[in-house]
Design goal:
mainly alpha, Four Helix Bundle (Hemerythrin (Met), subunit A)
Length: 200
Amino acid sequence: MVNEAPSPWNVANAVTLVRIALVPVFAWTLLMEGGDSVTWRLVATGVFVLAAVSDRVDGYLARSRNLVTDLGKLLDPIADKALIGTALILLCWPLGELPWWVPTVILVRELGVTVLRMVVLRYAVMPASRGGKLKTVLQSVAITLFLLPLAALPSAVLVVAWVVLGLAIVVTVVTGVDYFVQGWRLMAEGRRPAGPRPTA
């Protein structure tokens, strides 16, 4: 008996769609009252954490219930990058709480790896590495800390936020280089001509 492919309209993909829908909600709450309201910053932080945690939920549902679909593979990275990118950009401008180079480095890496994966797809699929997963966790934790109303918290929280962000940037760059090395090798192997055909 052949197992039927799961429908793309399943609970795992629904969670991913909810995460995408939460991105504008998160942006709106973060910018309320110019981003200076302690209450609204806490609400924005809560929305961000909820959206970030949902990434683990949809992945678990897809794997445990055999609901992995091509639509899910497409939507999941879009949802992740939309959430992380929106947070970084808004913290940089108009809030001015991060220097311009922070979102630039992270987003250039993310977009570059995404394009690389699409190019390499004709040769092989590049799965997320352990370093890539660590990068996502560090980015999420760092952004969560910066979303907090830091002016109303002890200065040590800001120090911790910068330390975690620094680690996230280092891992982001290192894993990005590693992905490009892997991609180059895959393309080189894929373009390498096969050996001479055996003669009869």
